Amino acid sequence: MISEQREKKEKLHRGAFYYPRIYRMIITQDIKSKMHYRADFYISTIGMLATNIAGFISFWLIFQSFPSINGWTYYEMLFLYAFSLLALTPVQLFFDNNWALRFNVYSGDFVKYCFRPLNLFFYYISETIDIKGAGQLVFGAGTLVYAWHHLGLEVSVRSMALLIVALTSASLVMIAMMNAAAATCFWVINSGTVMVFLFRFKDYAKYPMTIYNIGFQIVFSILIPIGFIAYYPSLIYLRAQDVSILTYLSPVIAVLFYYGSYKLWIRGAMKYSGTGS
Amino acid sequence: MGSVIELENITKVFRVLNRHAGLKGTFTDLFSRDYKNLVAVDHVSMSIEEGEMVGYLGPNGAGKSTTIKIMTGILEPTEGKLLVNGRVPYANRTLNAQNIGVVFGQRSQLWWSLPVIESFRILKEMYCIPDKVYKNNMEMFDELVGVSELYNKPVRQMSLGQRTLCDILAAFLHDPNVVFLDEPTIGLDVSMKSKIRELISVLNREKKTTVVLTTHDMGDVEALCRRIMIIDHGKLIYDNNIQQLKQFFGSYRTLKILPAGNVSFSEADLAKYGRQLLVLCPETRNVVFGSDEEWLTVLVPEDEISLIKVLEHMQTLIPFRDVRIEEITTESVIRKIYEGTSDAKPTLEAGHGE
After folding, report:
1. What DSSP character marks residue B107?
2. In the β-sheet with B252-259, what is the strand arrangement from edge to edge?
3. What DSSP letter does each residue of A174-212 carry, written as one string?
4. pLDDT digits over A81-125, tens only?
5. Is B164 touching A (CB cutoff 8 A)?
6. Contact A274 B74 (CB under 8 A)
7. Which residue from A minimizes the CA distance to B91?
8. Per-domain residue ranges for chain A?
9. Which of A221, B220, B259, B329 has an alpha carbon within 20 to 30 A of B96's alpha carbon?
Protein backbone atom coordinates (compact mmCIF):
# COMPACT_ATOMS: atom_id res chain seq x y z
CA MET A 1 0.00 0.00 0.00
CA ILE A 2 1.17 3.47 -0.75
CA SER A 3 0.67 5.25 2.52
CA GLU A 4 1.78 8.74 1.67
CA GLN A 5 2.56 10.44 -1.59
CA ARG A 6 5.58 12.60 -1.82
CA GLU A 7 4.37 15.11 -4.32
CA LYS A 8 6.66 17.90 -3.25
CA LYS A 9 9.28 18.96 -5.71
CA GLU A 10 12.69 17.63 -4.90
CA LYS A 11 15.77 19.16 -6.39
CA LEU A 12 18.72 17.53 -8.03
CA HIS A 13 21.96 18.98 -6.70
CA ARG A 14 24.22 19.28 -9.67
CA GLY A 15 25.80 22.68 -9.19
CA ALA A 16 25.30 25.97 -10.99
CA PHE A 17 27.43 24.96 -13.95
CA TYR A 18 25.48 21.83 -14.84
CA TYR A 19 23.55 23.33 -17.75
CA PRO A 20 26.43 25.38 -19.20
CA ARG A 21 28.67 22.31 -19.00
CA ILE A 22 26.15 20.07 -20.78
CA TYR A 23 25.50 22.78 -23.36
CA ARG A 24 29.18 23.22 -24.13
CA MET A 25 29.63 19.46 -24.52
CA ILE A 26 26.70 18.92 -26.85
CA ILE A 27 27.49 21.98 -28.96
CA THR A 28 31.16 21.06 -29.29
CA GLN A 29 30.16 17.65 -30.55
CA ASP A 30 27.58 19.11 -32.90
CA ILE A 31 30.12 21.47 -34.46
CA LYS A 32 32.63 18.63 -34.74
CA SER A 33 30.19 16.42 -36.55
CA LYS A 34 29.13 19.27 -38.85
CA MET A 35 32.75 19.82 -39.81
CA HIS A 36 32.66 16.35 -41.34
CA TYR A 37 30.47 17.84 -44.02
CA ARG A 38 32.77 20.64 -45.02
CA ALA A 39 31.19 21.31 -48.41
CA ASP A 40 27.81 21.65 -46.77
CA PHE A 41 29.24 24.09 -44.26
CA TYR A 42 30.95 26.28 -46.87
CA ILE A 43 28.00 26.35 -49.22
CA SER A 44 25.54 27.32 -46.50
CA THR A 45 27.92 29.98 -45.16
CA ILE A 46 28.35 31.45 -48.63
CA GLY A 47 24.57 31.27 -49.11
CA MET A 48 24.03 33.14 -45.88
CA LEU A 49 26.52 35.85 -46.87
CA ALA A 50 25.02 36.16 -50.34
CA THR A 51 21.53 36.59 -48.84
CA ASN A 52 22.79 39.33 -46.57
CA ILE A 53 24.74 41.10 -49.29
CA ALA A 54 21.77 40.96 -51.67
CA GLY A 55 19.59 42.38 -48.89
CA PHE A 56 22.07 45.16 -48.38
CA ILE A 57 22.32 45.98 -52.08
CA SER A 58 18.57 46.28 -52.56
CA PHE A 59 18.51 48.47 -49.48
CA TRP A 60 21.24 50.66 -50.94
CA LEU A 61 19.49 50.87 -54.32
CA ILE A 62 16.32 52.19 -52.73
CA PHE A 63 18.27 55.02 -51.18
CA GLN A 64 19.84 55.89 -54.52
CA SER A 65 16.37 57.07 -55.61
CA PHE A 66 14.96 58.37 -52.33
CA PRO A 67 16.99 60.53 -49.98
CA SER A 68 14.87 59.47 -47.04
CA ILE A 69 11.89 57.29 -46.18
CA ASN A 70 9.24 58.96 -44.09
CA GLY A 71 11.86 61.26 -42.63
CA TRP A 72 14.39 58.50 -41.95
CA THR A 73 17.77 59.02 -43.52
CA TYR A 74 19.98 56.42 -45.16
CA TYR A 75 22.21 55.95 -42.11
CA GLU A 76 19.28 55.82 -39.73
CA MET A 77 17.68 53.12 -41.86
CA LEU A 78 21.02 51.33 -42.00
CA PHE A 79 21.13 51.43 -38.22
CA LEU A 80 17.71 49.79 -38.03
CA TYR A 81 18.74 47.24 -40.61
CA ALA A 82 21.95 46.29 -38.78
CA PHE A 83 20.17 46.25 -35.45
CA SER A 84 17.57 43.82 -36.76
CA LEU A 85 20.28 41.60 -38.27
CA LEU A 86 22.04 41.39 -34.91
CA ALA A 87 18.82 40.78 -33.04
CA LEU A 88 17.98 37.92 -35.41
CA THR A 89 21.33 36.21 -34.96
CA PRO A 90 20.70 34.35 -31.67
CA VAL A 91 17.52 32.73 -32.95
CA GLN A 92 19.46 31.63 -36.01
CA LEU A 93 22.49 30.40 -34.09
CA PHE A 94 21.05 28.75 -31.03
CA PHE A 95 17.39 27.98 -31.64
CA ASP A 96 17.62 26.36 -35.03
CA ASN A 97 16.33 23.01 -33.78
CA ASN A 98 12.87 24.56 -33.51
CA TRP A 99 12.66 24.18 -37.28
CA ALA A 100 13.04 20.41 -36.93
CA LEU A 101 10.51 20.16 -34.11
CA ARG A 102 7.52 19.35 -36.28
CA PHE A 103 9.34 16.52 -38.04
CA ASN A 104 10.36 15.04 -34.70
CA VAL A 105 6.81 15.33 -33.47
CA TYR A 106 5.16 13.75 -36.51
CA SER A 107 7.62 10.87 -36.67
CA GLY A 108 7.15 10.22 -32.97
CA ASP A 109 10.88 10.63 -32.28
CA PHE A 110 10.15 13.51 -29.96
CA VAL A 111 9.34 11.21 -27.06
CA LYS A 112 13.02 10.32 -26.74
CA TYR A 113 13.76 13.80 -25.39
CA CYS A 114 11.40 13.26 -22.47
CA PHE A 115 13.35 10.55 -20.66
CA ARG A 116 16.43 12.57 -19.74
CA PRO A 117 16.97 14.17 -16.33
CA LEU A 118 17.05 17.76 -17.50
CA ASN A 119 14.83 20.52 -18.77
CA LEU A 120 13.06 19.33 -21.90
CA PHE A 121 13.22 22.63 -23.77
CA PHE A 122 16.89 23.09 -22.96
CA TYR A 123 17.74 19.56 -24.01
CA TYR A 124 15.87 19.83 -27.27
CA ILE A 125 17.24 23.25 -28.23
CA SER A 126 20.80 22.40 -27.21
CA GLU A 127 20.99 19.66 -29.78
CA THR A 128 22.03 21.84 -32.69
CA ILE A 129 23.82 25.07 -33.31
CA ASP A 130 23.69 26.72 -36.70
CA ILE A 131 27.19 28.09 -37.10
CA LYS A 132 26.47 29.88 -40.34
CA GLY A 133 24.51 32.38 -38.23
CA ALA A 134 27.94 33.59 -37.09
CA GLY A 135 28.48 35.13 -40.53
CA GLN A 136 25.35 37.20 -40.03
CA LEU A 137 26.67 38.32 -36.65
CA VAL A 138 29.86 39.66 -38.22
CA PHE A 139 27.99 41.31 -41.08
CA GLY A 140 25.43 42.89 -38.75
CA ALA A 141 28.07 44.13 -36.31
CA GLY A 142 30.13 45.69 -39.11
CA THR A 143 27.10 47.47 -40.54
CA LEU A 144 26.03 48.74 -37.12
CA VAL A 145 29.49 50.18 -36.39
CA TYR A 146 29.47 51.87 -39.79
CA ALA A 147 26.02 53.43 -39.28
CA TRP A 148 26.85 54.34 -35.68
CA HIS A 149 29.95 56.18 -36.82
CA HIS A 150 28.20 58.10 -39.61
CA LEU A 151 25.34 59.11 -37.36
CA GLY A 152 27.90 60.50 -34.91
CA LEU A 153 26.33 58.60 -32.03
CA GLU A 154 27.98 58.77 -28.67
CA VAL A 155 30.31 55.94 -27.63
CA SER A 156 30.15 55.52 -23.88
CA VAL A 157 29.73 52.86 -21.23
CA ARG A 158 26.11 53.92 -20.88
CA SER A 159 25.29 53.70 -24.58
CA MET A 160 27.05 50.33 -24.91
CA ALA A 161 25.25 48.91 -21.88
CA LEU A 162 21.96 50.17 -23.30
CA LEU A 163 22.80 48.58 -26.63
CA ILE A 164 23.39 45.21 -25.00
CA VAL A 165 20.11 45.39 -23.08
CA ALA A 166 18.27 46.52 -26.21
CA LEU A 167 19.77 43.79 -28.40
CA THR A 168 19.09 41.11 -25.80
CA SER A 169 15.46 42.09 -25.47
CA ALA A 170 15.07 42.31 -29.23
CA SER A 171 16.55 38.82 -29.65
CA LEU A 172 14.29 37.44 -26.95
CA VAL A 173 11.24 38.73 -28.81
CA MET A 174 12.31 36.98 -31.98
CA ILE A 175 13.15 33.77 -30.11
CA ALA A 176 9.78 33.91 -28.38
CA MET A 177 8.01 34.27 -31.72
CA MET A 178 9.77 31.28 -33.20
CA ASN A 179 9.27 29.18 -30.03
CA ALA A 180 5.56 29.87 -30.12
CA ALA A 181 5.36 29.21 -33.85
CA ALA A 182 7.27 25.93 -33.50
CA ALA A 183 5.13 24.87 -30.56
CA THR A 184 1.99 25.02 -32.69
CA CYS A 185 3.07 21.67 -34.15
CA PHE A 186 1.96 20.03 -30.90
CA TRP A 187 -1.61 21.00 -31.74
CA VAL A 188 -1.91 21.42 -35.50
CA ILE A 189 -0.60 19.46 -38.46
CA ASN A 190 0.29 22.39 -40.68
CA SER A 191 2.61 24.18 -38.31
CA GLY A 192 5.31 24.58 -40.96
CA THR A 193 3.18 27.29 -42.54
CA VAL A 194 2.87 29.12 -39.22
CA MET A 195 6.65 29.11 -38.79
CA VAL A 196 7.41 30.29 -42.30
CA PHE A 197 4.68 32.93 -42.06
CA LEU A 198 6.04 34.37 -38.81
CA PHE A 199 9.62 34.09 -39.96
CA ARG A 200 8.79 36.17 -43.06
CA PHE A 201 7.53 38.94 -40.85
CA LYS A 202 11.01 39.53 -39.52
CA ASP A 203 11.69 41.30 -42.83
CA TYR A 204 9.28 44.07 -41.79
CA ALA A 205 11.24 44.62 -38.59
CA LYS A 206 13.94 46.65 -40.29
CA TYR A 207 11.61 49.52 -41.20
CA PRO A 208 10.35 52.24 -38.88
CA MET A 209 6.90 51.41 -37.56
CA THR A 210 5.70 54.86 -38.63
CA ILE A 211 5.66 53.83 -42.31
CA TYR A 212 2.86 51.36 -41.55
CA ASN A 213 -0.72 52.43 -40.97
CA ILE A 214 -2.13 52.37 -37.48
CA GLY A 215 -3.67 48.93 -37.91
CA PHE A 216 -0.36 47.31 -38.75
CA GLN A 217 1.37 49.28 -36.02
CA ILE A 218 -0.95 47.69 -33.49
CA VAL A 219 -0.47 44.23 -35.01
CA PHE A 220 3.32 44.62 -35.03
CA SER A 221 3.37 45.80 -31.43
CA ILE A 222 1.04 43.24 -29.89
CA LEU A 223 0.17 40.26 -32.06
CA ILE A 224 3.34 39.77 -34.06
CA PRO A 225 5.68 41.91 -31.98
CA ILE A 226 8.33 42.61 -34.60
CA GLY A 227 8.32 46.27 -33.60
CA PHE A 228 10.46 45.23 -30.66
CA ILE A 229 13.10 43.64 -32.86
CA ALA A 230 14.58 46.92 -34.08
CA TYR A 231 12.27 49.91 -34.13
CA TYR A 232 11.30 50.51 -30.49
CA PRO A 233 14.79 49.84 -29.08
CA SER A 234 16.47 51.98 -31.75
CA LEU A 235 14.36 55.03 -30.89
CA ILE A 236 16.67 55.65 -27.94
CA TYR A 237 19.52 56.38 -30.33
CA LEU A 238 17.72 57.81 -33.32
CA ARG A 239 14.65 59.68 -32.04
CA ALA A 240 15.47 60.49 -28.44
CA GLN A 241 12.70 63.14 -28.42
CA ASP A 242 9.86 60.76 -29.28
CA VAL A 243 10.91 57.60 -27.49
CA SER A 244 7.78 55.52 -26.99
CA ILE A 245 6.76 54.09 -23.65
CA LEU A 246 7.08 50.73 -25.40
CA THR A 247 10.83 51.33 -25.73
CA TYR A 248 11.30 51.42 -21.98
CA LEU A 249 8.98 48.50 -21.54
CA SER A 250 10.67 46.39 -24.18
CA PRO A 251 12.98 44.43 -21.83
CA VAL A 252 10.00 43.55 -19.65
CA ILE A 253 7.83 42.74 -22.64
CA ALA A 254 10.61 40.63 -24.16
CA VAL A 255 11.01 38.59 -20.98
CA LEU A 256 7.25 38.13 -20.73
CA PHE A 257 6.97 37.05 -24.37
CA TYR A 258 9.86 34.67 -23.97
CA TYR A 259 8.50 33.16 -20.77
CA GLY A 260 5.06 32.78 -22.33
CA SER A 261 6.48 31.06 -25.40
CA TYR A 262 8.56 28.74 -23.22
CA LYS A 263 5.53 27.78 -21.17
CA LEU A 264 3.52 27.17 -24.32
CA TRP A 265 6.29 25.00 -25.75
CA ILE A 266 6.61 22.87 -22.59
CA ARG A 267 2.85 22.58 -22.26
CA GLY A 268 2.53 21.38 -25.82
CA ALA A 269 5.39 18.95 -25.36
CA MET A 270 3.83 17.38 -22.28
CA LYS A 271 0.43 17.20 -23.93
CA TYR A 272 1.89 15.62 -27.03
CA SER A 273 4.05 13.05 -25.23
CA GLY A 274 1.02 11.56 -23.60
CA THR A 275 -0.59 10.60 -26.87
CA GLY A 276 0.51 8.05 -29.40
CA SER A 277 3.00 5.30 -28.77
CA MET B 1 14.07 -5.70 -0.45
CA GLY B 2 11.27 -3.24 -1.05
CA SER B 3 9.05 -2.44 -3.97
CA VAL B 4 10.67 -0.29 -6.60
CA ILE B 5 7.47 0.34 -8.51
CA GLU B 6 4.07 0.55 -6.90
CA LEU B 7 0.86 1.35 -8.69
CA GLU B 8 -2.49 1.58 -6.98
CA ASN B 9 -5.64 1.85 -9.07
CA ILE B 10 -3.91 3.86 -11.76
CA THR B 11 -6.36 5.13 -14.34
CA LYS B 12 -5.69 7.30 -17.35
CA VAL B 13 -8.52 8.80 -19.33
CA PHE B 14 -7.86 10.71 -22.53
CA ARG B 15 -10.40 13.21 -23.78
CA VAL B 16 -10.65 12.93 -27.52
CA LEU B 17 -12.73 14.81 -30.01
CA ASN B 18 -15.52 12.84 -31.63
CA ARG B 19 -14.62 13.29 -35.26
CA HIS B 20 -17.28 13.47 -37.91
CA ALA B 21 -16.95 12.10 -41.40
CA GLY B 22 -16.86 14.10 -44.61
CA LEU B 23 -16.21 17.72 -45.48
CA LYS B 24 -19.19 18.92 -43.46
CA GLY B 25 -17.92 16.87 -40.54
CA THR B 26 -14.53 18.53 -40.73
CA PHE B 27 -16.13 21.94 -40.34
CA THR B 28 -18.33 20.74 -37.51
CA ASP B 29 -15.23 19.40 -35.74
CA LEU B 30 -13.63 22.85 -35.80
CA PHE B 31 -16.24 24.14 -33.37
CA SER B 32 -17.31 20.89 -31.79
CA ARG B 33 -17.40 20.44 -28.04
CA ASP B 34 -18.33 16.83 -28.56
CA TYR B 35 -15.67 14.93 -26.65
CA LYS B 36 -15.61 11.32 -25.62
CA ASN B 37 -13.53 9.78 -22.89
CA LEU B 38 -11.09 7.08 -23.81
CA VAL B 39 -9.96 4.92 -20.92
CA ALA B 40 -6.40 3.92 -21.79
CA VAL B 41 -5.48 2.47 -18.41
CA ASP B 42 -8.20 1.21 -16.12
CA HIS B 43 -7.53 0.77 -12.38
CA VAL B 44 -4.20 -0.96 -12.75
CA SER B 45 -2.40 -1.97 -9.57
CA MET B 46 0.96 -3.65 -9.37
CA SER B 47 3.99 -3.92 -7.22
CA ILE B 48 7.41 -4.72 -8.62
CA GLU B 49 10.26 -5.71 -6.34
CA GLU B 50 13.88 -4.68 -6.58
CA GLY B 51 15.82 -6.76 -9.09
CA GLU B 52 12.77 -8.31 -10.73
CA MET B 53 12.48 -8.76 -14.47
CA VAL B 54 8.87 -8.43 -15.53
CA GLY B 55 7.37 -9.03 -18.95
CA TYR B 56 4.64 -6.50 -19.64
CA LEU B 57 2.55 -7.80 -22.50
CA GLY B 58 -0.56 -6.84 -24.36
CA PRO B 59 -1.84 -6.25 -27.87
CA ASN B 60 -1.20 -2.94 -29.62
CA GLY B 61 -3.27 -0.20 -28.06
CA ALA B 62 -3.87 -2.17 -24.87
CA GLY B 63 -2.37 0.53 -22.66
CA LYS B 64 1.24 -0.64 -22.35
CA SER B 65 2.91 2.54 -23.54
CA THR B 66 0.57 4.69 -21.49
CA THR B 67 1.47 2.78 -18.32
CA ILE B 68 5.18 3.07 -19.11
CA LYS B 69 4.77 6.79 -19.75
CA ILE B 70 3.04 7.18 -16.41
CA MET B 71 5.86 5.31 -14.70
CA THR B 72 8.50 7.41 -16.44
CA GLY B 73 6.79 10.62 -15.34
CA ILE B 74 5.86 11.95 -18.77
CA LEU B 75 2.18 11.46 -18.11
CA GLU B 76 0.07 12.27 -15.09
CA PRO B 77 -2.52 9.63 -14.25
CA THR B 78 -6.15 10.73 -14.06
CA GLU B 79 -6.66 8.72 -10.90
CA GLY B 80 -4.71 6.51 -8.54
CA LYS B 81 -1.40 6.57 -6.75
CA LEU B 82 2.02 5.50 -7.81
CA LEU B 83 5.56 5.53 -6.57
CA VAL B 84 8.71 4.76 -8.53
CA ASN B 85 11.83 4.56 -6.37
CA GLY B 86 9.70 6.05 -3.60
CA ARG B 87 8.76 9.15 -5.59
CA VAL B 88 5.79 10.34 -7.57
CA PRO B 89 7.17 10.34 -11.13
CA TYR B 90 5.03 13.06 -12.74
CA ALA B 91 5.71 15.48 -9.90
CA ASN B 92 9.46 14.91 -10.30
CA ARG B 93 10.06 14.08 -13.95
CA THR B 94 13.74 15.02 -14.01
CA LEU B 95 14.57 13.47 -10.66
CA ASN B 96 12.76 10.29 -11.67
CA ALA B 97 14.61 10.27 -14.99
CA GLN B 98 17.90 10.34 -13.10
CA ASN B 99 17.06 6.94 -11.60
CA ILE B 100 15.57 5.15 -14.57
CA GLY B 101 16.75 4.04 -17.98
CA VAL B 102 14.52 3.81 -21.03
CA VAL B 103 14.92 2.13 -24.40
CA PHE B 104 12.09 2.81 -26.77
CA GLY B 105 12.08 0.25 -29.57
CA GLN B 106 13.70 1.41 -32.75
CA ARG B 107 14.03 5.05 -31.71
CA SER B 108 17.63 5.56 -30.78
CA GLN B 109 18.12 8.02 -27.97
CA LEU B 110 21.78 8.47 -28.79
CA TRP B 111 23.00 11.42 -30.81
CA TRP B 112 22.55 10.39 -34.38
CA SER B 113 25.68 11.88 -35.91
CA LEU B 114 28.06 11.34 -32.99
CA PRO B 115 30.34 8.39 -32.38
CA VAL B 116 28.81 6.27 -29.61
CA ILE B 117 31.63 7.00 -27.22
CA GLU B 118 30.86 10.73 -27.46
CA SER B 119 27.21 10.02 -26.69
CA PHE B 120 28.30 8.05 -23.65
CA ARG B 121 30.52 10.93 -22.52
CA ILE B 122 27.64 13.35 -22.77
CA LEU B 123 25.44 10.95 -20.82
CA LYS B 124 28.15 10.71 -18.18
CA GLU B 125 27.89 14.47 -17.64
CA MET B 126 24.15 14.56 -18.01
CA TYR B 127 23.56 11.95 -15.31
CA CYS B 128 26.56 13.12 -13.25
CA ILE B 129 28.05 9.62 -13.30
CA PRO B 130 31.17 9.38 -11.09
CA ASP B 131 34.38 8.52 -12.97
CA LYS B 132 34.78 5.20 -11.20
CA VAL B 133 31.24 4.01 -11.95
CA TYR B 134 31.61 5.07 -15.57
CA LYS B 135 34.92 3.26 -15.95
CA ASN B 136 33.66 0.08 -14.32
CA ASN B 137 30.52 0.03 -16.43
CA MET B 138 32.40 0.60 -19.65
CA GLU B 139 34.77 -2.26 -18.79
CA MET B 140 31.85 -4.49 -17.95
CA PHE B 141 30.04 -3.64 -21.20
CA ASP B 142 33.11 -4.40 -23.23
CA GLU B 143 33.56 -7.72 -21.46
CA LEU B 144 29.91 -8.65 -22.05
CA VAL B 145 29.44 -7.77 -25.69
CA GLY B 146 32.82 -6.57 -26.95
CA VAL B 147 31.56 -3.23 -28.20
CA SER B 148 34.73 -1.19 -27.93
CA GLU B 149 35.43 -1.45 -31.66
CA LEU B 150 32.02 0.13 -32.27
CA TYR B 151 32.73 3.15 -30.12
CA ASN B 152 34.09 5.37 -32.85
CA LYS B 153 31.29 4.65 -35.29
CA PRO B 154 28.51 7.23 -35.56
CA VAL B 155 25.11 5.84 -34.58
CA ARG B 156 23.83 6.82 -38.01
CA GLN B 157 26.10 4.26 -39.67
CA MET B 158 25.24 1.38 -37.36
CA SER B 159 23.08 -1.62 -38.10
CA LEU B 160 19.82 -1.86 -36.19
CA GLY B 161 21.29 -4.56 -33.97
CA GLN B 162 24.40 -2.56 -33.08
CA ARG B 163 22.26 0.47 -32.39
CA THR B 164 19.92 -1.44 -30.11
CA LEU B 165 22.90 -2.89 -28.28
CA CYS B 166 24.34 0.58 -27.69
CA ASP B 167 20.95 1.95 -26.67
CA ILE B 168 20.56 -0.76 -24.05
CA LEU B 169 24.07 -0.13 -22.72
CA ALA B 170 23.32 3.59 -22.58
CA ALA B 171 20.18 2.90 -20.55
CA PHE B 172 22.24 1.00 -17.95
CA LEU B 173 25.21 3.40 -17.95
CA HIS B 174 24.14 5.51 -14.97
CA ASP B 175 23.26 2.51 -12.78
CA PRO B 176 19.52 3.22 -12.72
CA ASN B 177 17.26 1.33 -10.34
CA VAL B 178 14.72 0.58 -13.03
CA VAL B 179 15.11 0.09 -16.76
CA PHE B 180 12.15 0.12 -19.13
CA LEU B 181 12.74 -1.76 -22.35
CA ASP B 182 10.09 -1.35 -25.02
CA GLU B 183 10.37 -4.07 -27.66
CA PRO B 184 14.16 -4.26 -27.57
CA THR B 185 14.45 -7.15 -30.04
CA ILE B 186 12.01 -5.92 -32.68
CA GLY B 187 13.31 -6.43 -36.19
CA LEU B 188 16.52 -8.21 -35.20
CA ASP B 189 17.94 -11.45 -36.55
CA VAL B 190 18.09 -14.58 -34.43
CA SER B 191 21.71 -14.30 -33.31
CA MET B 192 21.37 -10.63 -32.40
CA LYS B 193 18.18 -11.40 -30.50
CA SER B 194 19.91 -13.98 -28.37
CA LYS B 195 22.89 -11.68 -27.82
CA ILE B 196 20.60 -8.93 -26.59
CA ARG B 197 18.61 -11.29 -24.38
CA GLU B 198 21.85 -12.52 -22.83
CA LEU B 199 22.98 -8.94 -22.24
CA ILE B 200 19.72 -7.92 -20.57
CA SER B 201 19.74 -11.02 -18.44
CA VAL B 202 23.30 -10.48 -17.20
CA LEU B 203 22.79 -6.76 -16.52
CA ASN B 204 19.64 -7.51 -14.55
CA ARG B 205 21.41 -10.17 -12.50
CA GLU B 206 24.72 -8.42 -11.91
CA LYS B 207 23.40 -4.94 -11.23
CA LYS B 208 20.18 -5.98 -9.48
CA THR B 209 18.40 -3.59 -11.82
CA THR B 210 14.65 -3.94 -12.03
CA VAL B 211 13.66 -4.44 -15.65
CA VAL B 212 10.22 -3.88 -17.13
CA LEU B 213 10.14 -5.39 -20.59
CA THR B 214 7.37 -4.92 -23.12
CA THR B 215 7.46 -7.17 -26.13
CA HIS B 216 5.42 -9.07 -28.68
CA ASP B 217 8.05 -11.78 -28.91
CA MET B 218 7.25 -14.85 -26.81
CA GLY B 219 10.91 -15.81 -27.21
CA ASP B 220 11.95 -12.72 -25.21
CA VAL B 221 9.46 -13.56 -22.53
CA GLU B 222 10.54 -17.17 -22.22
CA ALA B 223 14.23 -16.31 -22.19
CA LEU B 224 14.03 -13.45 -19.71
CA CYS B 225 10.98 -13.16 -17.52
CA ARG B 226 9.87 -15.15 -14.54
CA ARG B 227 6.91 -12.90 -14.03
CA ILE B 228 4.41 -11.82 -16.65
CA MET B 229 1.79 -9.11 -16.60
CA ILE B 230 -0.75 -8.83 -19.36
CA ILE B 231 -2.83 -5.77 -20.07
CA ASP B 232 -5.78 -5.67 -22.43
CA HIS B 233 -8.28 -2.88 -22.95
CA GLY B 234 -6.50 -0.99 -20.19
CA LYS B 235 -7.06 -3.65 -17.56
CA LEU B 236 -4.45 -5.87 -16.01
CA ILE B 237 -5.81 -9.32 -16.81
CA TYR B 238 -2.89 -11.47 -15.78
CA ASP B 239 -0.11 -11.12 -13.21
CA ASN B 240 1.65 -14.35 -12.43
CA ASN B 241 4.70 -16.41 -13.22
CA ILE B 242 5.63 -17.82 -16.59
CA GLN B 243 4.80 -21.44 -15.66
CA GLN B 244 1.19 -20.46 -15.19
CA LEU B 245 1.22 -18.71 -18.54
CA LYS B 246 2.67 -21.75 -20.26
CA GLN B 247 -0.48 -23.64 -19.43
CA PHE B 248 -2.18 -21.35 -21.84
CA PHE B 249 0.21 -21.44 -24.72
CA GLY B 250 3.02 -23.91 -24.15
CA SER B 251 1.27 -26.89 -25.63
CA TYR B 252 -0.30 -25.30 -28.68
CA ARG B 253 1.12 -24.93 -32.16
CA THR B 254 -0.53 -24.12 -35.44
CA LEU B 255 -0.10 -26.26 -38.52
CA LYS B 256 -0.71 -24.36 -41.73
CA ILE B 257 -1.45 -26.25 -44.90
CA LEU B 258 -1.53 -24.90 -48.46
CA PRO B 259 -3.80 -27.28 -50.40
CA ALA B 260 -3.05 -28.24 -53.99
CA GLY B 261 -5.78 -27.00 -56.32
CA ASN B 262 -8.85 -25.07 -55.39
CA VAL B 263 -10.18 -25.90 -51.99
CA SER B 264 -12.95 -23.96 -50.32
CA PHE B 265 -12.86 -23.30 -46.60
CA SER B 266 -16.53 -22.87 -45.82
CA GLU B 267 -17.77 -23.66 -42.34
CA ALA B 268 -19.19 -26.91 -43.61
CA ASP B 269 -15.91 -27.94 -45.25
CA LEU B 270 -13.92 -27.19 -42.12
CA ALA B 271 -16.36 -29.23 -40.06
CA LYS B 272 -16.08 -32.03 -42.61
CA TYR B 273 -12.27 -32.13 -42.24
CA GLY B 274 -12.70 -32.28 -38.50
CA ARG B 275 -15.03 -35.28 -38.75
CA GLN B 276 -12.78 -37.08 -41.24
CA LEU B 277 -9.72 -36.51 -39.07
CA LEU B 278 -11.57 -37.72 -35.99
CA VAL B 279 -12.38 -40.98 -37.78
CA LEU B 280 -8.72 -41.53 -38.56
CA CYS B 281 -7.53 -40.63 -35.10
CA PRO B 282 -9.76 -40.17 -32.05
CA GLU B 283 -7.16 -38.04 -30.14
CA THR B 284 -7.86 -35.10 -32.42
CA ARG B 285 -11.16 -34.06 -30.85
CA ASN B 286 -9.70 -30.75 -29.59
CA VAL B 287 -8.04 -29.84 -32.86
CA VAL B 288 -9.46 -26.60 -34.26
CA PHE B 289 -9.71 -25.91 -37.98
CA GLY B 290 -9.68 -22.48 -39.51
CA SER B 291 -8.43 -20.60 -42.55
CA ASP B 292 -5.98 -17.83 -43.26
CA GLU B 293 -6.29 -16.60 -46.85
CA GLU B 294 -5.43 -19.63 -48.99
CA TRP B 295 -4.00 -21.52 -46.03
CA LEU B 296 -5.87 -24.09 -43.98
CA THR B 297 -4.93 -23.66 -40.31
CA VAL B 298 -5.00 -26.44 -37.76
CA LEU B 299 -4.52 -25.55 -34.10
CA VAL B 300 -3.02 -28.60 -32.40
CA PRO B 301 -3.01 -29.18 -28.62
CA GLU B 302 0.27 -31.02 -28.44
CA ASP B 303 -0.15 -32.68 -25.07
CA GLU B 304 -3.04 -34.62 -26.59
CA ILE B 305 -1.65 -35.38 -30.02
CA SER B 306 1.64 -34.59 -31.72
CA LEU B 307 1.71 -32.16 -34.60
CA ILE B 308 3.53 -34.68 -36.79
CA LYS B 309 0.73 -37.20 -36.29
CA VAL B 310 -1.85 -34.65 -37.38
CA LEU B 311 0.27 -33.80 -40.41
CA GLU B 312 0.48 -37.48 -41.37
CA HIS B 313 -3.29 -37.93 -41.19
CA MET B 314 -3.96 -34.70 -43.05
CA GLN B 315 -1.80 -35.92 -45.92
CA THR B 316 -4.20 -38.78 -46.46
CA LEU B 317 -7.18 -36.39 -46.41
CA ILE B 318 -6.14 -33.65 -48.83
CA PRO B 319 -3.23 -33.22 -51.24
CA PHE B 320 -1.12 -30.17 -50.43
CA ARG B 321 1.75 -28.12 -51.80
CA ASP B 322 3.26 -26.62 -48.69
CA VAL B 323 3.16 -26.68 -44.91
CA ARG B 324 4.20 -24.28 -42.18
CA ILE B 325 4.40 -24.68 -38.45
CA GLU B 326 3.74 -21.62 -36.33
CA GLU B 327 4.32 -21.01 -32.66
CA ILE B 328 1.34 -19.48 -31.02
CA THR B 329 1.56 -15.66 -30.92
CA THR B 330 1.34 -13.41 -27.87
CA GLU B 331 -1.94 -12.13 -29.22
CA SER B 332 -3.50 -15.56 -29.25
CA VAL B 333 -2.13 -16.34 -25.80
CA ILE B 334 -3.74 -13.16 -24.57
CA ARG B 335 -6.95 -14.05 -26.29
CA LYS B 336 -6.90 -17.47 -24.68
CA ILE B 337 -6.20 -16.00 -21.26
CA TYR B 338 -8.94 -13.51 -21.76
CA GLU B 339 -11.40 -16.23 -22.68
CA GLY B 340 -10.13 -18.35 -19.80
CA THR B 341 -10.46 -15.69 -17.13
CA SER B 342 -13.71 -14.24 -18.39
CA ASP B 343 -15.48 -17.47 -17.44
CA ALA B 344 -14.17 -17.24 -13.93
CA LYS B 345 -14.49 -13.49 -13.59
CA PRO B 346 -17.35 -12.20 -15.67
CA THR B 347 -16.69 -8.66 -14.44
CA LEU B 348 -13.70 -8.45 -16.73
CA GLU B 349 -15.97 -8.73 -19.70
CA ALA B 350 -18.22 -5.88 -18.71
CA GLY B 351 -15.60 -3.15 -18.66
CA HIS B 352 -14.93 -2.41 -22.28
CA GLY B 353 -18.21 -2.36 -24.14
CA GLU B 354 -17.73 0.17 -26.91
Report:
1. B
2. B288-292, B295-301, B252-259, B320-327
3. HHHHHHHHHHGGGT-TTHHHHHHHHHHHGGGGGS-GGGS
4. 999 999 999 999 999 999 999 999 888 888 888 899 999 999 999
5. no
6. yes
7. A7
8. 2-274
9. B220
